[in-house]
Amino acid sequence: MDYINYTKNFICQIINQDLQKNKYKIICTRFPPEPNGYLHIGHLKSICLNFFIAKFYKGKCNLRFDDTNPSKEHAKYVQAIQKDLKWLGFTWYSNITYSSDYFHQIYQYAIELIKKELAYVDELNIKDIREYRGTLLTNGIDSPYRYRSVKENLTLFENMRLGKFPEGSMSLRAKIDMNSNAIIMRDPVLYRIKYIKHYKTKNEWCIYPTYDFAHCIADAIEGITHSLCTLEFQDNRMLYNWILNNISIKNYPKQYEFAKLNIEHSVLSKRKINILLKNNIIQSWNDPRLFTISGLRKRGYTASSLKNFCYGIGVTKQNNLIEQTFLESYIKNELNQRAYRIMAILYPLKLIIINFPKNITEIIIKAPNHPNNSNMGYRYIFFTKEIYIDNTDFIEHISDNTNKKLTIGQEVRLRYAFVIKAVNIIKDIQGNIICVHCLYDPNTLGVKINKNRNVKGIVHWVSKIYSVKSDFYLYNELLINKNNENIKDILSVINKKSLLICKGFIEKNILQLCNITKHFQFERIGYFYLDKIFNNPKKIIFNRITKLKKK
Ligand code: ATP
Ligand code: MG
To answer: Cα–Cα distance between 224 and 255 in angstroms, integer?
Structure first.
């Protein structure tokens, strides 16, 4: 991967200037996932940026779990996120940190703000707080509790912590400006009461700091120099700076925002993925139709292809929607170089070679494992009396003479093998095709055919006896709409054909090749990834990573 272009992004330019001005000795970043779901490719954009900066500038990047909302967070997500990061090949600086590690310090900073008359305990409920806050067109209204004495505030806040008030009855708010043009500055909530067991601090606390209050303090405690987040936090930057300006903390990190990654026809938001899970559209976070890291891994994407994609899209302040084919191009380029080629039949049609020699069971043919890389060796394939081709390569009636399909009286070449001609179609009483009788031309193996002979195309095939049963999971776009950011009901835009399962066959050679790799190119079809092998009876499950061609 060529990183030169990536280093030209606006954040690296800011860091270059900071270093020129000697602002920092060491550059520190952090990746701050909330453990309320699995990582997705949007997170990876942020991960690549934060970890790349640390590596490039010889600084450090912390992994910090941003766990200030116990109602949605869980230790299982902490584990899953670490597993994904390890698989992706990222190593964080020193120990993992948690926002909850700093709950005591954050609490003390809240007391400091109260003492400075910059925070107060409010008794308005959430709905009233929202109403009093006003809109972009109207000013806010002061809460009747805004001007309590410091002493009263300290007592109430202490009693909030001691669990003396019911949930929702009180909150701690910053005293900033109810007429600010930025709604976020109209006395934002800093602490709320929640009688929920935290997965880490258990029942130690019943008040929890909000994201805005905790995040800047955690950044400062850790000595983060550049706190990178996505554009929707642009307004929050004002609050971030206000808090750090008003508490006695040594470090002063700076927040910078970049555009979120969005991918066409997909869903990234954890909240929306949860809706799909609850409604059984998908069964797990690692469904290969999702763009979660675990879903993409199960589908067959490699860590390098995902990271290279993130370096390829770069980092800007412009929100944009990336085509799925752009992501696919990275895994295709990688696998085109190194995936073993093999033949698989997804929609089997049986052919019987009626002139197959009676005294033998097979004709052995040598086929390369890769068309341009002889180092990958070769394998033997077996031409037998009964073979399968894809029924899409057969046509009963010729519509015009440009079709490249097998049909009665028309010849095609079997990949690596002989030229065959269809002579008779065998049907059941309902008129369904059971098999097609063919003749093979024994003089055509490895022989270039004269153009005048009009052999139409090359079709892939497998021997009936030298093949293994396989299920092929074909994944398509999960959502029918390109842009789903503003779709209110995600369930209304589900693509009903997002998963198709084909039952077919694959060359028996797969059983040896599986010991070397799990990535394959099925000739003429696409790139596939081995998911599972069952032994008795033998059956293999493959996931389609991508098609070979766009359509
Ligand atoms: P989601 O909206 O999917 O639930 P989130 O922003 O709530 O995501 P967090 O765990 O809070 O998820 O995010 C951790 C980090 O990843 C944050 O710094 C966030 O800005 C970044 N991030 C999340 N989604 C994207 C995205 N689509 N593109 C780039 N960065 C993202
Ligand atoms: Mg979040």
So the answer is: 10
